[in-house]
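Researcher: Let's run the pair from yesterday's discussion. Sequence first, then tokens, for each.
Model: Starting with the first of the pair.
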Amino acid sequence: MKKQPANPFILALTARNLTVEIHKHSAYQIVLSNDYPFTSTISGELCKNIYGFLIKPHVAHLCTAEQGTLSVLNIEPYSSIGLELARSFASNQDYIIFNSRTEIDAFFKMGTNHFDINTVISALLSKVPTIQYDERVTTMVEFIRSNFFERDINPQTFADLVFLSPSRLASLFKEQTGSSLSKYLLWTRLRQAIYVTLSEKDKGLTDIAYDTGFYDLPQLNKYMHEMFGMPPIALKHNSDLIQVY
């Protein structure tokens, strides 16, 4: 028996008056203006008065939007959508710039020149292929989603769960999802940490780190910056949650 795969990995948020120093992260990132054009520097190239960009993981960039708001979509690179986005780039191309709303519409095939981030998300989700996963993979995914806050999860945990050797289950999981188990677990913890940070803004970041499976706030800060280019404190004060998929 096989089951449907887990949901795609998209973290969608809005950022106000965003100024981010040069950084790189391990997610695909789509940044789109909700109103005014903005400036970004990507791989050393200054891009002025743009309406958005799509960037590969691990590409150095910074972003300055001194007025208005930006919609930011961070997409786990090993997810179905991440693998689909990888096909959008030409050989040796690290980023795609959108100089107008028309270019955004054409790229995402939205069929409208009226920008709406939810329409963009729907367009991304429509590209996800229908895949039937091995039931053991689905079992591991469901376990992670229910137990991500446990700090003692290790390869043997999954081996005991599905009665496979750690090496065999790691190979099976990556073969079917494109992601390692450790990356999937980390992404799940980060998604939950960001969700709580932006939906329960009175809750302390140290408590959030501990409740979502991190050992302490410095560890959450480290992985958050690696994945999204900013610490949770910056997200908390300058962002609002759209949705986590």
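Model: Moving on to the second of the pair.
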Amino acid sequence: MSTLMYKYSIEEVEITDEGIAVTLHPYKRVILPFDYTPKIAQASKKELEKFRILPNGRGIHFESIDKDIGVEGIVRDFLSEAA
């Protein structure tokens, strides 16, 4: 496991008109575009609203489409300071 997984955790998730808003601890807010993954791109907003944050903020599980997004991928793809 990367040290990135221990540096950040997911605190909040909100499905907005712009995308999937994710608040990470320590405070960073990123917007994941709806085309972030093929499964998410094909999902309806209603399907995406059925999610849960995984234990210790390590990811998001979208129940209706059986898709997980890990905090490590979010940090890698959206926070340039982690690169």
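Researcher: Give me one sentence on the second I can quote.
Model: Strands lie at 9-15, 20-25, 28-32, 51-53, 59-62, 67-70.
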